[in-house]
Specification:
Strand content: under 5%
Radius of gyration: 17 Å
Distance between the termini: 12 Å
Helix content: over 70%
Length: 136
């Protein structure tokens, strides 16, 4: 079980690095480009879908493998609620056709992701403590 938890910790760290380095930065770029060419935001549907797909894989990983180990910690329910909020924002982004509303939704999603990743960083020490307890 200790090795399993340590593997989850490593995967969680890698996922968070990827989301921060790729997904969030990419969404930032889309936000900036949409300001430059307001009619081009419709061409970003594939990019938004790709970001959403990665986010959904990340959510499934956390909710199926990480969160069950941490039930009872207050942060788990908070993070689950933010997962649902991000899913809703992605759906609204995919459907929105007004440029300014679309940009506002994307900005909201970026703020949520940054805030969420910061909170999720607290999961690693909880998991590491659990693994240490199993070793003792």
């Amino acid at each position: 079980m200790e090795a399993y938890i340590r593997g989850l910790v490593e995967r969680l760290r890698n996922e968070h690095r990827f989301i921060e380095a790729a997904v969030v930065k990419y969404l930032d770029m889309l936000y900036e480009k949409s300001a430059e060419a307001q009619d081009s935001f419709h061409n970003t549907a594939r990019a938004i879908k790709s970001a959403k797909d990665h986010w959904m894989r990340h959510i499934r990983f956390e909710e199926n493998e990480v969160f069950p180990l941490l039930e009872g910690h207050g942060i788990v329910e908070e993070l689950k609620a933010e997962h649902r909020e991000a899913e809703a924002l992605y759906s609204r982004l995919e459907a929105e056709r007004d440029v300014e509303k679309w940009r506002a939704l994307l900005r909201e999603l970026l703020h949520l992701k940054r805030r969420h990743l910061s909170k999720e960083s607290r999961l690693v020490p909880l998991l590491e403590k659990m693994a240490e307890g199993l070793r003792a």
